[in-house]
Write a structure and sequence with these properties.
heterodimer, A: alpha+beta, Sufe protein. Chain: A, B: alpha/beta, Aspartate Aminotransferase, domain 1, Aspartate Aminotransferase, domain 2, 2 domains, seven-stranded mixed sheet, 13 strands
């Protein structure tokens, strides 16, 4: 298997590695994949509640070089986007950007899943918080 | 198990120079440490082969001129050298193109020859695909095959074997040393059992011959596969030992033609390759006692250096019953292919699915009961004749540094350190 220069670059210098407090109200966490399958991605976003803009993103990935690169790239791409814009990121764009071969397409799918899962988690927190705010106001 | 997936390993060498990593003097990158896949040729083997390409090009089957005689002489010398290494006689050695052909000829040849006696074959789940796929082929033709499980350490349970042998059993085929985990099967005990029960015993001994002492008489081996390129000889040259007496084993030829090799394997002999195989065996016989100590010492140095610096590192397969040059380790929470990518100035293999064409992790490790997660995290180091202590130290440093880096990147490592039991996590896995 030969890797594209972009995959090698993300592998050697992964962007936005790290973790956020998953309990944070403005943090969304996506954990996708499974150890038995050889890929697990954790992608986290910090969203500005006023603007819905993803102000920061972090990831950690267990997986091959293409999985690491896909998630690293995903964090770069979601940063600065609104959550709705981030949901438009398609795995095929990741495949194209990183020149992933067919056997590595599932890595890009997983990265897209991770973005969706992180946003889904954040949205759930927002909805759960709403009634509480209403209650607090009363 | 496929080799290091980085196609550009040799050319990547130049990129690595640019990274200005400190490389101790005397080490040339990339380092080859995948000696179960193949071994580099010993220069003495090449010297032995060279005359047979040009000046001594004759066909060993040409009986009526000196060109043929000279070639035949080389072939017969090789036969003697191979036979001597395994305690056989030269008439018991049949030349083939390599291990896969030898395994096919042994298993299909015996199955076809003894079909009237029975249709049952016994093998083990950790055998090489050349054996397993041949057995599967025979199943389609009406043979019954028992695939013995192995124990946690990779060894076949002799009681399982005893129970599996029945009236219809004609062949037991169990490898001497495993190509992934280097585990040595109890060949002498298996041979004894087969002899007592009147069952032919074939052993795929390609990883063992030249590395550990193999004696076909002491071990009651009836048929054994040999290949040159695993013992510092050329690719494309192999042999099959076929017992001539006590008992005499007969095979049905799988390649028909001019009746070469006593009718068991037709085809003009690969004289240079055969000369090389013989020389490789002669060198192995001479040097095995010292060499196996030296290689086991290097292997242990690598093992200790890695294991003293990393936690949650597991050796796959028996440590005690093992080839001197094999180290197969799982690095928990780190995926094998990403580790290979990080140490791409070192040629090793991984049992990770990502390095195989099938996207399945190593079936050998699975047979040991290693979880898929650890199978994905495994690396096979194959240490050989030309590896040095300086290389071992360099490899250990690179592996440790890369595992530490990838663990920092691993959500699994983070979760485990937080005390999360990964076995109890509900993984939202997409269907692979």
């Amino acid at each position: 298997m030969s890797y594209s220069d972009k995959v090698i670059d993300h592998y050697n210098r992964p962007r936005n590695v790290g973790s956020m407090d998953k309990k944070g109200a403005d943090v969304g966490t996506g954990l996708v994949g499974a150890p038995e399958c050889g890929d697990v991605m954790k992608l986290q976003i910090r969203v500005n509640p006023q603007t819905n803009i993803i102000e920061d993103a972090k990831f950690k990935t267990f997986g091959c070089g293409s999985a690491i690169a896909s998630s690293s790239l995903a964090t770069e791409w979601v940063k600065g986007k609104t959550v709705d814009q981030a949901l438009e990121i398609k795995n095929t764009e990741i495949v194209k950007e990183l020149a992933l071969p067919p056997v590595k397409i599932h890595c890009s799918v997983l990265a897209e899943d991770a973005i969706r899962a992180a946003i889904g988690d954040w949205k759930k927190k927002q909805e759960a918080a709403k009634p509480a705010e209403v209650q607090a106001a009363q | 198990m496929s080799t290091n997936g980085n196609k550009a390993t040799l050319t990547n060498h130049d990129e690595h120079k640019n990274e200005q990593r400190a490389v101790p003097n005397g080490i040339k990158l990339p380092i080859y440490m995948d000696n179960h896949a193949t071994t580099p040729m010993d220069p003495r083997v090449l010297d032995e082969m060279l005359p047979y390409f040009m000046e001594k090009f004759g066909n060993a089957a040409s009986r009526n001129h000196p060109f043929g005689w000279v070639a035949e002489e080389a072939v017969e010398l090789s036969r003697e050298r191979i036979a001597r290494l395994i305690g056989a006689t030269s008439k018991e050695i049949i030349f083939t193109s390599g291990a896969t052909e030898s395994d096919n000829l042994a298993i299909k040849g015996v199955a076809e020859m003894y079909r009237e006696k029975g249709n049952h074959i016994i093998t083990a789940t950790t055998e090489h695909k050349a054996v397993l796929d041949t057995c599967k082929h025979l199943e389609k033709l009406g043979f019954r095959v028992t695939y013995l499980p192995v124990q946690k350490d990779g060894l076949v349970d002799l009681d399982d074997l005893k129970r599996a042998i029945g009236d219809k059993t004609i062949l037991v085929t169990i490898m001497a040393a495993n190509n992934e985990i280097g585990v040595l099967q109890p060949i002498a005990e298996i041979g004894k059992l087969c002899r007592e029960r009147g069952v032919i015993f074939h052993s795929d001994a390609v990883q063992a011959i030249g590395k550990i002492p193999i004696d076909v008489n002491k071990m009651n081996i009836d048929v054994a596969s040999i290949t040159a390129h695993k013992l510092y000889g050329p690719k494309g040259a192999g042999a099959l030992y076929v017992r001539r007496k006590n008992p005499r084993v007969q095979l049905v030829a799988q390649i028909d033609g001019g009746g070469h090799e006593r009718g068991m394997r037709s085809g003009t002999l690969n004289v240079p390759g055969i000369a090389g195989l013989g020389k490789a065996c002669a060198i192995a016989q001479e040097e095995m006692p010292q060499e196996s100590c030296k290689i086991a010492g290097l292997r242990d140095r690598l093992k200790d250096s890695i294991m003293s610096r990393l936690d949650e590192v597991y050796i796959n397969g028996s440590v005690e019953h093992r080839l001197p040059g094999n180290l197969n380790i799982s690095f928990a929470y780190v995926e094998g292919e990403s580790l290979l990518m990080g140490i791409n100035d070192i040629a090793v293999s991984s049992g990770s699915a990502c390095t195989s064409a099938t996207l399945e992790p190593s079936y050998v490790l699975k047979a040991l009961g290693t979880g898929d997660d650890l199978a994905h995290s495994s690396i096979r180091f194959g240490i050989g004749r030309f590896n040095t202590e300086a290389e071992i130290d360099y490899v250990a440093d690179r592996v440790v540094e890369t595992v530490l880096r990838l663990r920092e990147l691993s959500p699994l490592y983070e979760m485990a350190k937080e005390g999360v039991d990964l076995k109890n996590v509900k993984w939202a896995a997409e269907a692979h």
